[in-house]
């Protein structure tokens, strides 16, 4: 596969959007839609907008780097490898069940809590387990990315995903709840079917290839050992002959020359550091290994502290991001947080001072509280497993290095949003689509939602840039709940294939899977889900 394929795809996408600003007239909405002259993005803009994206969406890159730090430290702990192996052994012969359970759990978690970006925290662990089970990288990407896509498309109570859209359309989170659940279930079923059918075709091939690779490597290593032994015997014979001649006529510097010759013979026969040279099979095997760092510690590591810390991070983030007060009028967390922070000892609010600006559960966001939780978990993990400070720093640096590429790719997808915001043209396309038919039409609305999802990257900005204009075209408020379902479901589906999907492009970059390879793998599932959504929307409209 060509190097930096995903980065090239994202940069090419940005270039295409910039070219669109030269072709399509501008269209801005402020109470009324105004179509004007083209607002072209220039050469300097192409290179300056990544800085703008970093300014507004730098928290995305920062969060990815912090997750990388966590795994950089975890990879240096024997318990991590032990935990992965424990899960693999526990589901031996039942790998399909494991994949199905993971898809269901992640999809429901995203649907209920709306933790789209924070859920990336579990991706490296899930990927390591899936690869260790013998599946390929495409399966690992389908399980992780597909689960998030299903959760977004079938968002039920995830206010973090749909809050702004609900405000614009003046609808509630519980509107069309049955339709959202149906879409979530359908996505999960089709996703599991895709994974199961594809994994059956590829797993056996992967296992056979690994066996052949191991056998080839062993044969080549034996050949190298035999040849090395022969060379050593020859060198020994030559040394004995030379030593006999030199013993008969000793000279100055004899010891030095003989020692140098013996060292040179050893280097020739064994390679660097006295080891046989690596075979091509061994090098191929090294390049195909997962990211888990192996350790030489033969003692069984205690996996429970790691498992508890890992689970607590997910639970705490989910509790913190869930809108308790807005959905169910539960104010316990706000009251408890306030009571703790205002509690005084000798007239001094000690806990409030120690905790600082801590928000209550239900008020958390990805920019502040979520990264802090992962950072604290990284430090606690190092303390529990008594990681040396030097190893801790090395692990953090290694984690940052590995996660920097995916993080930059995810940040660059937001450059597309910057371009269409500073050079608005998408409403010109939206107006054209909605004017094709008179009144509300499911197909044209789906296409409008699809294009808006590609251009605006995040559902918040889809709602902000497109929905206010749609409200002026579709004035029947009874259709707004359906429009909300269409936009959230289509946005979720677009995240499965679009080059502006930060979840997709970051994961493909991490797994080193090309975009072309991914499209070949997923296009059938995409079309099937699109057709199912069209049927569901038509049924909702008819009822």
Structure, explained:
- The chain is mainly α.
- 73% of the residues lie in helices and 1% in strands.
- The chain has 23 helices and two strands.
- It has helices at residues 5-23, 43-74, 78-90, 95-113, 123-132, 137-153, 159-169, 177-248, 254-270, 280-287, 304-321, 324-328, 332-342, 350-355, 369-384, 389-422, 426-434, 442-456, 459-465, 467-473, 480-494, 502-511, 515-542; strands at 27-30, 32-35.
- The protein has a two-stranded antiparallel ribbon.
- Helix 8 (177-248) packs antiparallel against helix 10.
- The model is unreliable at 206-221, 230-234 and 240-297 (pLDDT under 50).
Secondary structure elements and pairings:
Elements: H1 5-23, E1 27-30, E2 32-35, H2 43-74, H3 78-90, H4 95-113, H5 123-132, H6 137-153, H7 159-169, H8 177-248, H9 254-270, H10 280-287, H11 304-321, H12 324-328, H13 332-342, H14 350-355, H15 369-384, H16 389-422, H17 426-434, H18 442-456, H19 459-465, H20 467-473, H21 480-494, H22 502-511, H23 515-542
Antiparallel strand pairs: 1-2
Please trace the helix and strand order, writing H or E for each element.
HEEHHHHHHHHHHHHHHHHHHHHHH
The low-confidence runs, each spanning 5 or more residues with pLDDT under 50, are 206-221, 230-234, 240-297
Structural class: mainly alpha
Biggest sheet descriptor: 2 strands, antiparallel
Regarding quaternary structure, what we see is: single chain
Percent of residues in beta strands?
A: under 5%
Across the major sheet, the strand order is 1-2
Q: Percent helix among the residues?
A: over 70%
Distance between the termini: 49 Å
| Total of DSSP H or I helical runs spanning 4+ residues | 23
The backbone outline, from C-alpha atoms, is globular
């Amino acid at each position: 596969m060509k190097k930096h394929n995903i980065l090239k795809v994202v940069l090419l996408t940005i270039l295409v959007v910039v070219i669109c600003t030269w072709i399509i007239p501008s269209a801005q909405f402020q109470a009324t839609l105004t179509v004007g002259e083209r607002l072209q993005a220039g050469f300097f803009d192409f290179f300056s907008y990544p800085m703008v994206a970093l300014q507004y969406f730098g928290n995305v890159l920062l969060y990815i780097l912090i997750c990388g730090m966590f795994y950089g430290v975890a990879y240096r702990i024997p318990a991590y490898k032990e935990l992965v192996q424990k899960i693999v052994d526990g589901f031996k012969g039942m790998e399909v069940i494991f994949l199905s359970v993971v898809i269901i759990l992640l999809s429901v978690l995203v649907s209920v809590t709306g933790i789209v970006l924070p859920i990336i925290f579990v991706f490296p662990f899930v990927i390591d387990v899936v690869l260790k089970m013998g599946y390929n990288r495409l399966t690992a990407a389908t399980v992780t990315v597909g689960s998030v896509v299903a959760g977004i498309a079938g968002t039920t109570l995830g206010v973090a995903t749909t809050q702004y859209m609900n405000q614009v359309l003046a609808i509630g989170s519980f509107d069309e709840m049955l339709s959202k659940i149906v879409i979530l279930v359908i996505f999960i079923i089709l996703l599991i079917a895709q994974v199961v059918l594809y994994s059956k075709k590829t797993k056996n091939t992967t296992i056979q290839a690994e066996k052949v690779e191991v056998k080839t490597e062993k044969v080549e290593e034996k050949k190298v050992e035999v040849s090395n032994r022969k060379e050593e015997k020859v060198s020994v014979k030559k040394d004995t002959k030379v030593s006999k001649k030199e013993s008969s006529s000793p000279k100055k510097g004899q010891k030095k020359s003989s020692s140098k010759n013996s060292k040179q013979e050893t280097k020739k026969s064994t390679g660097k550091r006295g080891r046989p040279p690596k075979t091509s099979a061994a090098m191929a095997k090294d390049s195909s290994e997962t990211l888990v760092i192996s350790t030489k510690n033969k003692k069984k590591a205690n996996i429970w502290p790691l498992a508890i810390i890992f689970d607590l991070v997910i639970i705490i983030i989910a509790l913190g991001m869930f809108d308790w007060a807005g959905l169910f009028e539960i104010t316990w967390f706000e009251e408890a947080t306030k009571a703790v922070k205002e509690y005084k000892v000798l007239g001094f609010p000690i806990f409030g001072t120690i905790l600082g600006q801590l928000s209550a559960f239900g008020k958390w966001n990805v920019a502040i509280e979520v990264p802090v939780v992962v950072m604290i978990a990284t430090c606690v993990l190092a303390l529990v497993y008594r990681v040396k400070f030097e190893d801790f720093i090395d692990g953090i640096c290694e984690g940052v290095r590995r996660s920097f590429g995916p993080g930059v790719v995810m940040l660059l997808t937001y450059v597309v949003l910057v371009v269409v915001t500073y050079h608005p043209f998408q409403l010109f396309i939206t107006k054209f689509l909605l004017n094709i038919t008179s009144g509300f039409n499911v197909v044209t609305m789906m296409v409008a939602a699809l294009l808006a999802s590609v251009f605006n990257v995040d559902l918040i900005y889809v709602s902000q840039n497109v929905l206010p204009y749609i409200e002026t075209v579709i004035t029947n408020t009874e259709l707004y709940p359906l429009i909300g379902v269409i936009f959230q479901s289509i946005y979720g589906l677009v995240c499965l294939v679009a080059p502006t999907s930060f979840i997709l492009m970051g994961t493909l970059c991490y797994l080193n899977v090309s975009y072309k390879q991914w499209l070949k793998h997923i296009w059938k599932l995409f079309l099937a889900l699109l057709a199912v959504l069209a049927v569901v929307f038509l049924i909702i409209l008819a009822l």
